[in-house]
Write a structure and sequence with these properties.
CATH class of the largest domain: Alpha Beta
Radius of gyration: 27 Å
CATH superfamily of the largest domain: Zn peptidases
Distance between the termini: 30 Å
Strand order of the largest sheet: 3-12-14-13-15-18-16-17
Strand content: 15-25%
Number of strands: 19
Shape: elongated
Helix content: 25-40%
CATH architecture of the largest domain: 3-Layer(aba) Sandwich
Number of domains: 2
Amino acid sequence: MYRNKAIAAVLSTTLLFGSGALSVAAENPGNNGGSSHAFDNKVIKKIDADAMYNTVDLLSKQPREAGTEGEKIAVEYIKSKFEEYGYETELQPFKLEGEWNAGTSSVTLNGTAFSGDVRSFSGSVNKSVTAPLEFVGLGSPTEVEAAELEGKIALIERGVFNFYDKIQNVLDAGAVGVIMFNREGASGNNFGYTYDGQNIPAVAITREEGLELVDQLNTETIEATVSVEGASYEMLTSYNVIAKMKPNPNKDTGQIVMIGAHHDSVHGGPGANDDASGVAGVLELARILAKTPTDTEIRFLTFGAEEKGLVGSYHYASTLTEEEVNNTVAHFQMDMIGSKDAGDLIMFTPDGEKNLVTDLGAAAGARISEVVDYGELGRSDHVPFYNLGIPAALFIHAPLEPWYHTPEDTIDHISKEKLQQVAEIVGASVYQIARKDTPALQNARVAPGPVDYDYDDRPL
């Protein structure tokens, strides 16, 4: 049922799962005033919402877009705080594609240079091809199949289908190049992407110029040349920040728990809630757990380039050894945990199924404030760990605030109470695994009591 021995060990010594509830074999099932809550207090009484608020304020003084100086300033600050707390800390750099340099693109028709503006698709290969030109409409499978494209350059109208499917359809049919003209109602030719494996020169022209080519093809055969030269992405460097707390060597179970957030913001956005708030939570839990005896390694992580497609977390996950993956029993991701204007707290899993993280989060919520429900959502840095088979969940307030991904995502919209709530729940959940008495927890008087929590089909 469970992916590895480490997770099975946590469950067999800590939690016995029933249908839809968390039920624990313990002498005292625990309640808000019981022994379990007393152990929670070792963590939650130390959480300082003012300190988290101040961290959000500091980090949101300027945008932190991945690959920029703003991000570098942020990661150096985060690293310095981990080091101040005594952690083994590193910056993990990784490459990131920045702005597309379109290079020099050209088209010739029957030996005559095309008079219009030509722009390469982002990601296009640098290559020159000469072949008959064939119009394939919107590039649907039916239109492409009827066109007999083998060895030809495809002329495609933009619209209805995405760029990937259009390019892949003509590539699979044997096309050697692409000219695409803009969709109805759109002007210019600044559009288009090719993707990994689509090694075909692809260029964009305006709608008016494309329609003229369609008319020309109705009266004559066109031998076209499509050329892309000097096109490339600017390569940027982004960073993950990694801090590790080793367990007591005499109590080490070999297990690993991860707590994460992303430190980058969108272009031009101060990113107070998204996600300086999550970073503040990670740093605060790192501060209060720094001197706490554990039998479990705790890793505190902040990721770069989440806003560019989870690039940093995927990179970090790819560097984990098989042993590390097998030993990691939980990943807690905090993203946008502080907005006054967002909805209630929810735990999202990529598959919409409960796991160890949501069970612990729901139980901690019941002991501390209220039961937290769960739902289904990817789109954040819990996904790469879920893909490795690690129980993972995203802690977030939903629906999102109106200022999401805007320059108005500022400190004045941050709630200290919400920061406190999530830090308490995640901190208590992590401590439930990491504290040094967990190997014998089923015989202790500190286990969480039964908790029912529901699926919530709540939109983000």
